[in-house]
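Summary for the steering committee. One of the milestones for this cycle was to obtain a three-dimensional model of the protein with iron/sulfur cluster bound, which we needed before selecting residues for the alanine scan. The sequence and ligand used are listed below.
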Amino acid sequence: MQIPGSGILKGLAVTARNMIGSYFEPERLITQQYPEEKPKLPERARVFPFLIYDGSDPETGIRCTSCKICEKECPPQCIYIVQDRDQNGKPIKRPKIFNIDISVCMSCGICVEVCPFDSIRMDTEFELSSFDRFSSLILDKSRLLKPNSYYHQIHPTEAAQTDERIEAERRKKQAASAAKNTPSKPTTPSQPSTPPQTPNSIQTERPPASTPAATS
Ligand code: SF4
Ligand code: SF4
């Protein structure tokens, strides 16, 4: 039988133990002085998506090919992409417009899962509140694009694995194209199955000449 009020006493004992313990063990101090102190997020933390670019120029290094798979698969349909075109109107494999409405995004990460080009990943940036409910919550290309070094900074293990995979795929493609461009060996004429016939052999193969009919 439980004594009435024993639960309250147990709770108070835990609080007292932690209060006194916090003077001796700093890890017991779990209150963080945010926003002065920023929390150290775990590597697997995810908030909203961002786009990765390689090198130093976001426009030329953008990995996104504007395939629009993420746009189609996004459950709340908060991605909007317009493919870029050259001066002749020919489509270019990069987005001209890439917007994500983070007031709608539910941080499911499906866009990341379906992207075949490792172009989109989940960011850990969460300080995105704004007084403007609309335009500032639509992240355009300039706000979405971040370098691969940033990806390494926030998700080091995942970024290293992605880089390894991209490098392996690049090598595989290189090997395949090298094999395709290597001229094939000239074929040697095949040996005839039977040796060429010499006049003698021709003679020997002839049917035996019919013997003249015996004269009676
Ligand atoms: S995380 Fe989910 S909801 Fe947000 S953009 Fe990607 S697919 Fe859409
Ligand atoms: S982010 Fe990935 S899936 Fe989405 S359009 Fe770009 S390449 Fe395609």
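Key point for the committee: The first strand starts at residue 49 and ends at 53.
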